[in-house]
Amino acid sequence: MLGLSDKRVLQYILAKRLPAHKVQGRYMIPTEAVQEFQQRPHGRIRTAPTPWRIYRAGASVRVQQIEVPAYPERQEDLRSKLQALPQEQEHLFPGTMQRYICIIEQSEPVRISIMLIWKDTELPDESVLEKSLESFKTDFAGLLDWRSARIIVAQAIVHT
Q1: How high is the pLDDT of residue 4?
Q2: Residues 30 and 78 grouped into a single domain
Q3: What are φ and ψ of residue 38, in 5° steps?
Q4: Which of 50, 116, 118, 150 has the smallest count of CB within 10 Å of its CB?
Q5: Which helix (H) or strand (E) element contains residue 21?
């Protein structure tokens, strides 16, 4: 009901973040407590902005940004397919240290922006990159107008 493992629920009970009482060796959690329970965000909450940095020892960061329009009549299908990516763990783009896919809703037609980020020391050769992108293009062919795609490749100067 909480979407948590038994171990995690027990940790919350022992930390007094989730009220419960023991009955015959089992913890009972009031229905209201389950409905009101809110998980804290993962990790620490930032109190200050992350500082700018430069990689040491000459390492650099490569950024590839792809903007591509969505077919207007397929936008809901596109959103559903994108939201399924974390579950399916497909299109991981080898070597990337970060990947973002954003929907640019203010544009007409709606566009998506794909941002792929590699540290140059983990960047695969161009044939691997091209194969990964071709696989993505094929999988999203009926949803995105790849003929109108714009691809920008850049090198980051500073990063967070």
Answers
A1: 82
A2: no
A3: -130, 125
A4: 50
A5: strand 21-23
Chain-centre distance for alpha carbon 124:
21
Residues 152 and 117 in one domain: yes
CA distance 77 to 74: 5
Residues 76 and 28 occupy one common structural domain: no
Give the residue numbers spanning the domain of 106. Answer: 61-156
What SS3 state is found at 26?
strand
Q: Is 54 a member of any domain? A: no
pTM (two decimals): 0.71
Q: pLDDT-derived band of residue 40, with 50, 70 and 90 as boundaries?
A: low
Same domain, 25 and 93: no
Burial zone of 59 (CB within 10 Å; 0-12 exposed, 13-18 middle, 19+ buried)? exposed
Are residues 37 and 18 in contact, defined by beta-carbon separation less than 8 angstroms? yes
Express each pLDDT in 4-23 by its tens digit: 888 888 888 888 888 888 89
Do 75 and 151 lie in one domain? The reply is yes
CA atoms within 13 A on the CB side of 61: 18
Around Cβ 20, how many Cβ atoms within 10 Å? 17
Total count of domains within the chain: 2
